[in-house]
Amino acid sequence: MNRLPERIRIKDIARLAGVSVGTVDRVIHGRSGVSPSSRKRVEEILVELDYHPNMYASALASNKKYTFSCLLPMHQPGEYWTAIEKGISDALVAYSDFHISLRTDYYDPYDYHSFVDKSQEILTEQPDGVLFAPTVPQYT
Description:
Low-confidence stretches: none
Number of helices: 6
Shape: elongated
Mean pLDDT: 89
């Protein structure tokens, strides 16, 4: 019997569709270079199997490096924001496989210009993502 493994892989889909692994990869990622008939066969099998790519495996395989910036209000050790920083630090360790780096900047919560200036500085760096905590939302 031609059974499928519990976790469907691209090579299983390729076998069922009678195409190469590269063809399945191109269909999944919406790339060109696939004949209409092959694309149709692969797409039908994807639907039939209710296939969803393993995002964790894809991210690890891509080896992409992600840069994030974090903008927090200045604070003293032990204050509320210390716990937030600890949570962010713990997440960096937990997801270290994803090659994430973080730059943390601080602004004066009593000076809205400080928030705006630091925000502009961060945006010029063009990070992949930004975490920020405005204390005066209308200036965000």
